[in-house]
Amino acid sequence: MANRLSQIATRTGDDGTTGLGDGSRVPKDHLRIQAIGDVDELNSQLGVLLAEPLPDDIRELLVLIQHELFNLGGELSMPGYELLKAAAVLRLDEALAHYNAALPRLKEFILPAGTRSAAIAHVGRTVARRAERAVITLAHSETINAAPRQYLNRLSDLLFVLARVLNRANLDGLGGDDVYWQSERLKRHEDPSTN
Prior knowledge:
The chain is mainly α. It has six helices and two strands, in the order ββαααααα. The protein has a two-stranded antiparallel ribbon with strand order 1-2. Helix 1 runs antiparallel to helix 2, helix 1 packs antiparallel against helix 4 and helix 3 runs parallel beside helix 5.
């Protein structure tokens, strides 16, 4: 891509439209722009996670993911282009298998909680799911390559696993394990006879 942003406030969007990478203009509430925005928010959420203390291998992985998300957003902004390759999805599959292998099997649902870095990873997981839904919605009306949808699906799974890893890394001294959902606790609060 030879064109780089040299002017940020162009005022061309004052009419409620925005430009795509191919030069066409669409309304700012277009499904394509919603998907691009969700991917951008996800990338920004990973930036917040990267501001936390992290193990070096996870930091390196997240930086690579940020670059791939930029490619994904670029692909969405240029209808008909392919920027995100199948190899990127495969890398997430490999990372998912690697990090999940060291974790104990889940016997109960976990809450999106624990260390600050784990909680931020959980927020990223939910934004990835929203971005995935936006890409799927867009694909109902326009042709979208499979890799963006697959990538967002795997990334949400990976962020769930990384949240568990980050709780165990305990880099802020507030974690150490998953925070488990306790249905029995709810029963005690809902049943007055147990109080």
